[in-house]
Write a structure and sequence with these properties.
Order of helices and strands: HHEHEHEEHHHHHHHHHHHHHHH
Number of domains: 2
Helix content: 55-70%
Number of strands: 4
Structural class: alpha/beta
Largest sheet: 4 strands, mixed
Distance between the termini: 26 Å
Strand order of the largest sheet: 2-1-3-4
């Protein structure tokens, strides 16, 4: 077994058994499950705010009840109440969150809402009761107005990739999830490789390592080991995400939650998973090499943030652009950034998931990223070679240029 394989095996074993890897993997899986349950938890906590008591003329409250039940649960309807409502009054009427007093002002409808938590009721009430307002002005039955408000709209995908809107919404939800997993995996493991290189250098272990193995081979072993642990961690997270994905797909759902959940199998396809793995590898290699090179420039652990901090900027920028790409995959700035190294793995993958990307654009992005991996490896390897044994201060530009020429 050659020296590179020995270092690779030792590095992989050390990372997998480390507390930080185990904790990060478990914590990430727990966070995914929590996110999937969050909509249910939030909707449960908001049930009280959705319970309303209606007070007023029975002719008004009976018509309003039908309209408001689209967004609220009506716990009681009363012809009148004595004075202003109190918390005890709300608790006595089904633990309601609000009381709505309806009356007429001329030909217009007027509503006063007394609520436990002011600020979230006015818009919904105004929207739901708009039909009743029109009914009072025109004299038409509210039911007739409601029946003519709905317009059947059939939205179809020009590219023909998605059979209906629910499948497209499911693809957006899964695409968002996968991009966030890609972001977290790269970010956590890139930070891990910086810490590992810095620890070896500050403890002088690096001097022993480079005496037995070429620095370029050492860097290769570290990047491959980090990539392998990243794949392992990502596999756990993706498995947990898919198990809880039925709730996650509802994040971008407009027709109905059940339709979007049933569309997962169509919204995300086997090619999408393969594209995800490919762009994960390309993005991970680029970041791992650069972060390892940055770690070799650090002589004190306190300086890690100063040296590696700028490298987080393109990664954070990429995830921000990817969020825009989910809704506008063919916007000019989104298309342009899908070819830029460090940004491309996030943005191009998002475009592939939620839209129809021309094959030549995908091929060009892959070619650019492969070239970037080679270029970053060449530059990072030489920075790593020079910085690993340089203590006290980072290498000067002259030293770096001389190192490139000598190699």
């Amino acid at each position: 077994m050659n020296a590179t394989a020995v270092v690779l095996q030792a590095e992989f074993g050390r990372r997998v058994r480390s507390r930080s890897f185990i904790f990060g993997t478990v914590a990430g899986a727990f966070a995914i499950v929590l996110i999937s349950l969050l909509p249910t938890l939030l909707s449960g906590s908001g049930n009280q705010a959705k319970r309303v008591v209606l007070v007023g003329d029975p002719a008004l409250t009976s018509a309003a009840r039908v309209l408001l039940e689209r967004d609220f649960t009506i716990t009681a309807t009363l012809p009148q109440m004595a004075g202003a409502p109190t918390i005890a009054f709300l608790d006595a009427h089904g633990k309601a969150g609000a009381v709505a007093s309806l009356s007429r002002k001329g030909t217009k409808l007027h509503a006063i809402v007394y609520t436990r938590e002011p600020g979230g009721m006015r818009r919904a009430f105004a929207s739901d009761l708009g039909v009743l307002q029109i009914a009072l002005l025109t004299g038409l039955p509210a039911s007739r107005i409601v029946s003519n408000l709905h317009v059947d709209v059939d939205e179809r995908d020009i590219a023909g990739r998605f059979s209906d809107v629910s499948h497209a919404m499911a693809a957006k939800g899964i695409g968002y999830l996968f991009v966030m997993l890609l972001y977290l995996t790269i970010l956590l493991n890139a930070q891990s490789i910086v810490a590992a290189v810095t620890e070896e250098k500050t403890s002088r272990i690096a001097e022993l390592l480079v005496a037995a193995i070429d620095p370029a081979q050492l860097l290769l072993a570290k990047v491959v080991a980090t990539s392998a642990t990243g794949f392992l961690q990502l596999g756990v997270w993706v498995g947990v995400a898919l198990l809880s994905g039925r709730a996650l797909t509802g994040m971008f759902n407009t027709p109905s939650a059940s339709d979007a959940a049933d569309a997962v199998a169509v919204g995300i396809t086997a090619p999408d998973v393969l594209w995800f793995l490919l762009f994960f590898v390309l993005g991970f290699i680029q970041c791992a090499v650069l972060f390892a090179a940055a770690g070799s420039l650090v002589s004190r652990s306190e300086d890690v943030g100063n040296v590696s901090g700028p490298l987080y900027i393109p990664v954070v920028g990429a995830i921000a652009i990817a969020q825009f790409a989910i809704e506008s995959p063919n916007a000019p700035y989104v298309v342009a950034t899908s070819f830029i190294p460090l940004l491309s793995p996030f943005v191009m993958y998002t475009r592939i998931t939620v839209g129809a990307v021309p094959p030549w654009q995908i091929a060009l992005a892959i070619a650019i990223n492969l070239a970037a991996c080679v270029g970053f490896a060449w530059i990072g390897g030489r920075i790593y070679r020079v910085g690993l044994l340089l203590y006290g201060r980072p290498p000067t530009p002259r030293q770096m240029i001389a190192a490139f020429r000598n190699d």
